[in-house]
C-alpha cells in the first residue's frame, strides 16, 4: 500500500508546490489517489499557515479530502512540535468532532501515551524511531510490543 505524506512540516519556502490549505490538500489527495495511493497523511494548517491540532482545522482538512475522494483514508500528525504541552495536545485530540482515519503518534514524545489513548493506535518505524523511554527502537516488533504493553488491541 502506498501512503502519500502530502506536506509534513514543509513550507512553501522549501518547495512551491507544498499543499497547505484544506483545498490544496484535497486537490493533491485526488491527484495522488488517481496514481494509486491508498491513503494520505497530512499536517493541517490554520489560517496563518501554522500546523494545528485545533478541531476546526483538523475537521476542515479531513472533510475537504473526504468530499472530493470518498473512501480514501486520511491521517494527520499529532507531533509535539505542533502543541508542545502534552495536556494541550491531548485536549485538542479529544475535542476533534471529525476524526481522521488514523493519526501518527510519536511514541518518544511527552504525552504520547495520553494522545494514543484518544486514538486508534497504528505503530511503526515510518515516523516513530524511538521507544517511549527515548531509546532507539531496534525494529518494528519493539514498537508493536510497546503498543501491546499499553493495552492496545
Automatic annotation (TrEMBL):
Pfam families: BKACE. Gene3D superfamilies: Aldolase class I (3.20.20.70). One of its GO terms (molecular function) is 3-keto-5-aminohexanoate cleavage activity. Transmembrane segments: none annotated. This is 3-keto-5-aminohexanoate cleavage enzyme.
